[in-house]
Amino acid sequence: MSRRRGQLVLLAAAVVVTALVPMLLAYAQLGYVGDAAAPSDDRVGTTLVDGKRALERTVAEATGAVSNGTAADQHRKAADLAVTWVDATAAAVESTGTAQGVTVDVARNASAARRWARVRCPRGPDRAFGACVANGGVITQTRADTTALVAVAVDVSVRGPDGTARATFVVRGVRGAVSVGRTEP
Fold it and tell me: Do 159 and 170 contact (CB within 8 A), yes or no?
C-alpha cells in the first residue's frame, strides 16, 4: 500500500512541475521591457539608404535606355531622358518617406555633377570617349557613336522625429553610387 502511495505522490509532483514550467516562461516574458542599450528605430538612416538604392536602380535602368535612344553628341536629349527617369523615382522616394513618417527631399545637384565631371570623368589613353558634359545634375559622355548616361548627382535630405540626415550621391550608371558627403546632426 505504501509503495502505491509513493508512486502516486511522485506522479502528482511530475504533473505540478509540468504545469509550472509554462507559467514560469510566461511570467518571464511579461516582465521583459526591451534592451535599453539597443539602438532606436532609425527611420531616417533606413530611408536614406533605401532612397539611394532606388536611385541606383533607376540610373542603371536609364543608362541602357538613354544610350540606345541617342546619337553621338546629343547630350541635352540624353540628359532630358535621364531626368524623366530620375524625377519619377525621386517622387516615389519622397512619397515612401511620407508613408514611413519622415520627410524626404530629393533634388538633382548641378554643382556636384559639374565637379564630378571635371575630376572623375572616365578617360584615359585606352578609351575613345568624349568629354563629360553636365546638364542639370546629369553627366553624359559620347561613347561609340552614342551619348551615354554616366552619372546623376542628387541631394537627399531626410527629416524625422529622431533627427535629420543629408547626403549627396553621385549615382553612376553602371557601378552604383559614390557618396560625396553625408551629414547628420
Answer: no
Say whether pLDDT at 105 is over 80. yes
pLDDT (0 to 100) of residue 171: 92
Largest Cα span, the chain: 105
- Tell the burial category of 135 from Cβ atoms under 10 Å away from its Cβ (0-12, 13-18, 19+): buried
Q: Check residue 38 and report its DSSP letter.
A: S
Q: What is the DSSP letter of 153?
A: E
Residue with cell 551619348: 147
User: How many angstroms from the chain centroid is the CA of residue 150?
Assistant: 20
Q: 96 burial class (0-12, 13-18, 19+ CB within 10 angstroms)?
A: middle
Q: Which amino acid is at 47?
A: T
Q: Which amino acid would we find at residue 72?
A: A
**pLDDT at position 122:** 86
Amino acid at 149: L
Predicted confidence at residue 132, as pLDDT, reads: 92
Q: How far is CA 7 from CA 11, 12, 99, 131, in A?
A: 6, 9, 64, 93
